[in-house]
Specification:
- The longest helix has 15 residues.
- This protein is of the alpha/beta class and about 280 residues long.
- The chain is about 40% helix and about 20% strand.
- A seven-stranded mixed sheet has the order 5-4-3-6-7-9-8, sandwiched between helices. A two-stranded antiparallel sheet has the order 1-2.
- Strand 3, helix 7 and strand 4 form a beta-alpha-beta unit.
- The mean pLDDT is about 95.
- It has twelve helices and nine strands.
- The chain is elongated.
- It has two domains: about 60 residues, Helicase, Ruva Protein, domain 3; about 210 residues, 3-Layer(aba) Sandwich (Rossmann fold).
Length: about 280
């Protein structure tokens, strides 16, 4: 006779808690729901549902993967961003809630302007590009990434969310691919969430990030500013008159990143904070 949802959850929670996993109850419940195909509401309404032995064994395998530090999102293969379900895997960074601020500000800017074209630089899972395409039907989006594997995920997300024809995907190391294959192409808005973690800070990161997420999507060099230097140096060549650039930054990088863009000839640099009051976005023109 199998155990019920009510009996299984505390067992998984304890395994995760003993392994140092935060939100152990939430993750145990989420993994069981994933295994048996129940959403949160259905789980709550069927607390005494008896889980079969095969599902229980598979769920314990998932619990052990999570206890070993594998992110919940890579186990389930999904992460919600801007209310949409995105496929994620170890080739792409897991979209963060703070990046929704960048998406919100970009969409707000596009709706208030006559902009027609957007470049999402370092697109990863395509979370920004797809969210913008969904929210702004008149906008043509280009999404680029150096990783061919990431672009496969991004294309899959664009298809699943109904905007594949609205997004062009380009494999490019920042602007290098545009110089070769898209000569003369310019954009009304560039959005980017580039790698910005200092190389020396990796040892102190949570194991879920340090050991599982793609390093090349995180490592911003010794001072965390390598990608901003490159973007600041080249962005103007790909911006139409009156265009702007919005980039996510580390919470302590507003001044240093802002100086790079100022030295590159950008005159207007606005700092946008997140809900915790931390510097999170630079809006540059």
């Amino acid at each position: 006779m199998g155990l019920t949802i009510k009996e299984l959850i505390p067992i998984g929670e304890k395994i995760l808690r003993d392994a140092g996993v935060e939100n152990s109850n939430i993750d145990a419940e989420a993994l069981l729901g994933f295994e048996i195909g129940f959403d949160k509401k259905k789980m709550f309404m069927n607390w005494t549902y008896e889980v079969g032995d095969a599902h229980s064994e598979s769920w314990f395998d998932l619990i052990n993967r999570r206890a070993a530090g594998e992110p919940l999102q890579y186990i389930t293969g999904e992460q919600y961003f801007m209310g949409h379900r995105f496929t994620v895997d170890p080739f792409v960074l897991i979209p963060r809630p703070e990046t929704e601020i960048l998406a919100d500000k970009a969409i707000e800017h596009l709706r208030a302007s006559s902009a027609k074209t957007v470049l999402d630089l370092c697109t990863g899972s395509g979370a920004l590009a797809v969210s913008i395409a969904k929210a702004c039907p008149r906008i043509k989006v280009t999404a680029s990434d150096v990783s061919a594997e990431a672009l496969i995920v991004a294309k899959r997300n664009a298809g699943a969310l109904g905007v594949p024809s609205r997004i062009d995907f380009v494999q490019s190391d920042l602007f290098a691919g545009f110089r070769r294959g898209f000569f003369g192409k310019k954009f009304d808005l560039i959005v980017t969430n580039p790698p910005y973690i200092r190389t020396g800070d990796f040892a102190g990161l949570a194991r879920e990030i340090r050991d599982h997420e793609p390093i090349k999507a995180l490592d911003g060099g010794a001072d965390g500013l390598d990608f901003y230097r490159c973007i600041a140096a080249d962005a103007r060549d790909f911006m139409r008159s009156g265009a702007c650039l919005m980039t996510e930054i580390g919470a302590d990088q507003a001044e240093s990143a802002g100086i790079l863009f100022s030295c590159a000839g950008f005159n207007s640099i606005e700092i946008i904070q997140d809900l915790s009051g931390l510097d999170r976005i630079l809006k540059i023109s």
